[in-house]
Amino acid sequence: xxxxxxxxxxxxxxxxxxxxxxxxxxxxxxxxxxxxxxxxxxxxxxxxxxxxxxxxxxxxxxxxxxxxxxxxxxxxxxxxxxxxxxxxxxxxxxxxxxxxxxxxxxxxxxxxxxxxxxxxxxxxxxxxxxxxxxxxxxxx
Length: 140
Description:
By secondary structure, the protein is of the alpha/beta class. It has a single domain (2-139), classed as Tetrahydropterin Synthase, Chain A (2-Layer Sandwich). 27% of the residues lie in helices and 35% in strands. The chain has three helices and six strands, in the order ββαβαβαββ. The chain has helices at residues 52-66, 78-82, 97-114, and strands spanning 2-14, 28-40, 69-73, 88-91, 121-127, 133-139. The chain has a six-stranded mixed beta sheet with strand order 4-3-1-2-5-6. The radius of gyration is 16 Å and the shape is elongated.
């Protein structure tokens, strides 16, 4: 299987509504490093999986959504309090590194499908900090 990857970073804030005491209950920020990978069993007519410029377009989409945004669970009471004052992006779950890796990977599959790019797998590794990361892989 062939694979290509692209790496970029975002600055974001979040908080987690956890059922136990945690510092992550407070709004705080991270400098995230994101690695997106696309795998395919064969190359296209141009001898590639996808042109890197198209992955740059996807990068811009993710940056527009998440960079310098506050990412919250959609049911977090802070959403209503802060949405008129700051850039907020909501998820249907807690905005953990795992959830963000999943969200970005699934967004990447949609992005590729819309462009009729043939692939077998997408993988996103989301580094919340320099030493802590989560990955999600989508297989066709």
